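Hi R.,

Here are the chain sequences for the assembly we discussed:
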Amino acid sequence: MRESQTAVLERGIRVEDEFATEPFEVAWAGEARWFVQFLEPGEEATVTLTPQVSADGLAWVDHEAPAVKAAASGVITLPLRDFGHWLRLVVQRSGGRTAPLARIYLALKE
Amino acid sequence: MTTSTSTPDGDLGSQLRDALRSTDPALSRFNPLRRILAHDDFNSGLHGWVELGGNYNGRGDYDSLDRHFRDFRPPQLSSCDFFDVGTHGAMSGTYALKLATRPHPGHTATAIRRLTMSGRGLLQIEAYLAYKAEATVGPDAVDGFGDMAWDGNQHPSEAQFGAFTVATDLCGDGGLRYHTVARYQNADAEGRMRRQWMYPVVPEPTPREHYEGKVDHPYAADFTAPNPEDWRAYGDPQELCMNEVPTKVNWHYLRWVIDTDARRNVELQLNDRTMDWSHVPVPPYEERYGSLENLLNFYFSVRTLSGQRNFLYLDSVVISADW
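And here is the predicted structure of the full complex:
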């Protein structure tokens, strides 16, 4: 059996403008997928999801996978391979009058 | 001061168990009671250790979670990677379970293991653990904090680590619920070194008490016992092996025994110090709880007071019982 883990990196965060998820160690994993689920959508708001990687959990750089831009509603997902031993997700919001409420999962598998 | 609960009683069965265990590199580092309920080596996954999540309503509404229960962070399978040495690795193999706080004063990270009791009597948890504050790099980082200034031996990160806790959530015999709790308070919010074992004299506030309007604690409150006046110091301070900088990991042996028949603490061991905890009070909830018959939960937590991320690493854990 392949090891796996689903980590809930944010259980309910207001996406005001921009934030990064907490550093998460993923050395054991070969594949990952981010899920950003909007519990309360942001009317007329869009979000940009940028996956980042790190060798030490301190210094961060964008992953080669392209950022995903989408309306702040429903579920947005982003797959990743060939990452280092730490992952985080940068979420940027643009537009909209209210801050959407989001849950963020990181699904990992060997 | 020292009681003896887990040493062989001299009968042939105990001698055989000890002899067999001594040939097993994974178990011979432990001293379990007769029945091993769990042996969790984190090279093979999470073994059921999960973020302590608060209770929520039938719709899963985020707002129905207690504010101080909403953000206890998911545990990580850590290879103990650091900026200066790369992969440190665990005591056995590459991976340890890591609890990591946010960089927010008072924030707590947890991992809980959920079982039930098939008997009553002695119950023991053993672990090899290490604790660290997150390393800092760059010209903007502080070179001193509280009692600790960099002098080639001591490092400010030692004073930036707040506390780690091992505790239970137990219930049975008609909904009688109680916690046993042992906390190592390393430093206070100002970085003054305490190195003090602590215990609370009140039970942990529950989501039902919040639902009933009896309590309402803010984000990053100390969920185990929010009022600092409800904590007591146990004995003299104990100095542990933080080992100078935040990127050296030395594994400490923890062994903690409780008695679920008498609903009391028994003894606590950290490395070469064994402490009689039989007089440490275990206050039960006055009201009975449903849905929890024979509840047997252990949790570890780590709490930052400085606001620097704090980490608790667990190489492996053994839970055992004498029933």
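Chain A has a mean pLDDT of 97. The interface with chain B takes residues 3, 5, 7-9, 11-12, 22-25, 27-28, 39, 55-59, 85-86, 101 of chain A (CB under 8 Å).

Let me know if anything looks off.

Best,
T.
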